[in-house]
Design goal:
With 207 residues, the protein is α/β, with parallel strands linked by helices. 55% of the residues lie in helices and 13% in strands. It has one domain (5-205): 3-Layer(aba) Sandwich (Rossmann fold), CATH 3.40.50.
């Protein structure tokens, strides 16, 4: 039996890292064998690609190059880690997946949907997350939260308008796949965010 594939998505400052850790602990407590990973990244090769994509010095990286790099990392990630884990029956918990490409490179960068769709089909075909937790909050609040982090990476350094497009794209994705997505109000305090996530997990995993 194939394992569960759960992803967390959201804009900057949504609290994904914190909720990823809490989700990981909860799944372990429920008896799941969990593989926790991230995108871009998750394998040695994919982590090297991540470093290129996020490096602030790569100011000349064009949107199409960025998209292709992300999907190259994803192809390696799927082949080396995600698919084998799912075949073993493990639950894969991933910080971002292809919805992020639709939001950041599609919505944010304005790349054509048909190109992203073709890459999605080529790289992972019918494989989709069983549950995508979308941590949503106003962009202005997200920017306030990440301001205290210090040095921003290449993506985090984008303008507010870029992140508004990212958020709009994420919400459109969620509206198009309501059975897969659970929209989580990430503007509230940590415990209130977690209660929404736990409820979504219980509803999905106990069906």
């Amino acid at each position: 039996m194939r394992g569960w594939f759960i992803t967390l998505e959201g804009g900057e400052g949504a609290g994904k890292s914190t909720m990823l850790e809490r989700t990981h602990r909860w799944l372990l407590q429920q008896g799941h064998t969990v593989i926790k990973t991230r995108e871009p990244g998750g394998t040695e090769t994919a982590e090297r690609i991540r470093a290129i994509v996020l490096d602030r010095d790569n100011t000349n990286l064009c949107p199409m190059t960025e998209l292709l790099l992300v999907f190259a990392a994803r192809a390696q990630h799927l082949d080396e880690l995600i698919r084998p884990a799912l075949r073993r029956g493990a639950t894969v918990l991933c910080d971002r997946f292809t919805d992020a490409s639709w939001a950041y490179q599609g919505g944010g960068r304005g790349l054509p949907a048909e190109i992203i769709a073709a890459l999605e089909k080529a790289v992972h075909g019918d494989l989709q997350p069983d549950l995508t937790l979308l941590l949503d909050l106003p962009v202005s609040l997200g920017m306030e939260r990440i301001a205290s982090r210090g040095m921003s990476d290449r993506i985090e350094s984008e303008a507010v308008e870029f992140f508004e497009r990212v958020r709009k794209s994420y919400l459109a994705r969620a509206a198009g796949s309501p059975k897969r997505f659970a929209i989580v109000d990430a503007s509230v305090d940590e415990e209130a965010v977690w209660r929404q996530i736990e409820r979504a997990l219980r509803e999905k995993l106990t069906r």
